[in-house]
Design brief:
The protein has three helices and three strands. The chain is an alpha+beta fold and 82 residues long. It has one domain. A three-stranded antiparallel β-sheet has the order 1-2-3, covered by helices on one side.
Length: 82
């Protein structure tokens, strides 16, 4: 019984809740999407994507490139214009 009362109370609270987000729920535009640039860099380098971050009008993409033989992998950062 107690669990059904908790569920009903929670449903009542959620029914009256409004979505909250940045600036009172407004949609905030972001600088850009780096996914296409990241896919291109990963395909060209044969590396593994570590991060892709928009900064101003460019994407900063970091990949981990496997070493040959016993060599350690290299971390490479590439800047691509959006």
């Amino acid at each position: 019984m107690a669990s059904s009362l908790i569920i009903m109370a929670l449903a009542g609270v959620l029914a009256g809740a409004s979505p909250s987000g940045p600036v009172g729920g407004a949609i905030v535009p972001v600088a850009g999407n780096c996914s296409a640039a990241a896919r291109q860099v990963v395909a060209e380098t044969g590396g593994q994507l570590l991060s892709a971050t928009p900064q101003g009008n460019e994407c900063v993409i970091t990949v981990l490139i496997p070493g040959s033989g016993d060599a350690r992998p290299r971390k490479v950062t590439v800047r691509v214009q959006m």
